[in-house]
Specification:
By secondary structure, this protein is of the alpha/beta class. Helices cover 45% and strands 17% of the residues. Helix 6 packs across helix 12 (264-279).
Amino acid sequence: MSTSAENGKVKVITVTGGKGGVGKSSVSLNLAVALCQLGAKVMLFDADLGLANIDVMLGLKVKKNLGHVLNGECDLADIILTGPCGLRIVPASSGLRQMAELTVEQHAGLIRAFSELNEEVDFLIVDTAAGISDMVLSFCRAAQDVMMVVCNEPTSVADAYAEMKVLSNDYGVNRFHIIGNNLRSLQEGKTMFAKLLAVTGRFLNVTLELTACIPADPAVRNAIRQRSCAVEQYPQSPAAKIFKLLAARVMQWPVPDLPGGHLQFFVENLVRHENDAAES
C-alpha cells in the first residue's frame, strides 16, 4: 500500500483541548507512535512553544530547539529528533516565556521553516499549548482535522466548549473529533460526550464525533516515568489498545487532494491566516 508521503500528500492533525492537564501531549505521542507502528511516516510538532513536553516525556537530549530556528541560528531540519519507532519530533523551547506568543516576524519564520523542510511525512501531528491563544487557534485553523481532548470534568468540558466556540464563530472551524481521556468506563465517555453535544447543539453550528474513549490506565503514566509511551512500553494495556484502534481509524481518514507534499497544506494555511490577521 502506498503511503500519503509517496503520493505527495500530508495529513495534518492538531491535538488541542482548551484546558491544561487533560493529556493532550500523551494523546499526541501515543497516537503518533501507533501510526508509526502501522508503517506511516509521522512527524510530531511540539507546538506548546513556551513549555516543551514531548522531548521531556521521552528523555531526549535537545541541543537546539525551535527558538534557535526562529532566531536564524539553524534550520528546522537541524533540530528534528528521532523518537520511538522512527517518530520524527520537532521540539519546542522549554521555559522561554517569549516563545509562548510569537511576533509577526517569528510567525513568518516558523512558516518559512516548515516550507523549506524536505522531509517526507504522511502525518504531521501538532500538539498545541493549553488555552486559546492566537498560536493555538492558528494551528487549529491550519489543520485538516482537529482532535479535542476532553476529560469528564466540568472545567474540561467548559474549556473545550469555549475553544470550539471561538474556532467555529470566528474562524469557520466546524468539525471536531472528540477524544475522551482518562475515563473510568466507556459509558463515562459517552456521558461526557452527551454533555458536550447538548451545549454545542444549542449554541454552536458544529459537528462533533466521539472518536475515541481512552481509559484511565496506570500504564500511560508508568510509560512516561520510563521515558517511553504506552503503545511501545505496554502494548497490551487497555489504553495502548485504544490508541492503536484510534491510529487504525486515522489511517483511513482522507488526505487532501493537493499537489506536492512537504507540509504544503499546513504552510499555505498558516500563511493565509497570518495575512487574514494582518488585514483585520
